[in-house]
Design a protein that fits this description.
The protein is an alpha+beta fold. It folds into 3 domains: 13-67, Glutaredoxin (3-Layer(aba) Sandwich), CATH 3.40.30.10; 82-179, 3-Layer(aba) Sandwich (Glutaredoxin), CATH 3.40.30.10; 188-283, 3-Layer(aba) Sandwich (Glutaredoxin), CATH 3.40.30.10. The chain has helices at 17-27, 45-53, 57-65, 69-92, 110-121, 135-145, 163-172, 175-179, 187-195, 214-226, 239-249, 267-275, 279-283; strands at 35-37, 40-43, 96-100, 102-103, 106-107, 127-130, 152-155, 158-161, 200-204, 206-207, 210-211, 231-234, 256-259, 262-265. Strands 6-3-7-8 form a 4-stranded mixed sheet. It has a 4-stranded mixed sheet with strand order 12-9-13-14. Strands 1-2 form a two-stranded antiparallel sheet. Helix 4 packs across helix 6, helix 5 (110-121) runs parallel beside helix 7 (163-172) and helix 10 (214-226) runs parallel beside helix 12. 23% of the residues are buried. Residues 1-42, 97-160, 200-263 form the Glutaredoxin domain. GO terms for molecular function: iron-sulfur cluster binding; metal ion binding. It comes from Laminaria digitata.
């Protein structure tokens, strides 16, 4: 085919046993390769060789399949270009992209599961594409990347490799610096940073000047009455922090008040301490 300048697509039947067995029955042709033109079976390698002996293979294929090969190959070329454009858009859709079998939470092969685990172990954010859901992308990406297997890992649109490559990199040290990407900060680390960002921090609904609930408004009033310097975080603006801090602190409601990195409690605790004259001393660091 290449010798005759015929444009063609291909499918690796070794990669899909269901297609391999099914096509034999569908075509009533027991061996591979099998050559099709515009959906019509021409035959195997012996048939293609015989057609080539008759002269212009393109013309002979047209006669054998009863189609205009020039138009058919042009359409195939257009289709191939369209799929490659899709692949390039997918590669550009995220800084770190994994083409895998299945999804990160439901991988369909051990290689994909292991690669996802390596990335998650280092809190590396990534997007993914399930190549089992799109055979066109599955085949086109192999040609585009010149990489025959999956999963495939890309960073900033460039192929890093498959699982073996990532394992080798892991043996050399942390993956993120080698990949040139910044790992996502863990939620616990982020929460600790927010809690320790000021000596006194109130996690509340809204802001001090525009509280979004009566409990938060009252808590702000108590802190202002004490005349202490404090910071706040609006949990309505960040659902990850809102849900995560409940588990981190084992405290189910808001507002939550922290002093010197330690949880004092919610509004009821603040009120009790205020009535007992203990709120001010609890908020201010004790001299050692």
């Amino acid at each position: 085919l290449r010798g005759a300048g015929v444009d063609f697509g291909s499918f690796d039947i070794l990669s899909d046993e269901q297609v391999r067995a099914g096509l034999k029955v569908y075509s009533n042709w027991p061996t591979f390769p099998q050559l099709y033109v515009k959906g019509v079976l021409v035959g195997g390698v012996d048939d293609a060789a015989k057609l080539a002996e008759g002269g212009d293979l393109k013309a002979q294929l047209a006669v054998a399949a009863g189609v205009d090969v020039g138009k058919a190959t042009a359409a195939a070329a257009d289709g191939s270009k369209s799929v490659q454009d899709r692949c390039k858009k997918l590669l550009a859709s995220a800084e770190t992209m994994v083409f895998m079998k299945g999804s990160p939470d439901a991988p369909r092969c051990g290689f994909s599961r292991t690669l996802v685990g390596l990335l998650r172990d280092e809190a590396i954010e990534f997007a993914s594409f399930d190549i089992l859901e799109d055979q066109d992308v599955r085949q086109a990406l192999k040609e585009l990347s010149n990489w025959p297997t999956y999963p495939q890992l890309y960073v900033k649109g460039e192929l890093v490799g498959g699982l073996d490559i990532l394992k080798e990199m892991k043996n050399d040290g942390p993956l993120a610096p080698q990949l040139g990407i910044k790992p996502k900060e863990s939620l616990d680390s982020r929460l600790k940073g927010l809690i320790s960002s000021r000596s006194i921090v109130l996690f509340m609904k809204g802001t001090p000047d525009a509280p979004q609930c009566g409990f938060s408004r009252t808590a702000i009033g108590l802190l202002r009455d004490e005349g202490v310097d404090f910071g706040t975080f609006d949990i309505l603006e960040d659902q990850e922090v809102r849900q995560g801090l409940k588990k981190f602190s084992n405290w189910p409601t808001y507002p939550q008040l922290y002093a010197q990195g330690e949880l004092l409690g919610g509004l009821d605790i603040m009120k009790e301490m205020n009535e007992a004259g203990e709120l001010g001393s609890a908020l201010r660091p004790q001299a050692s």
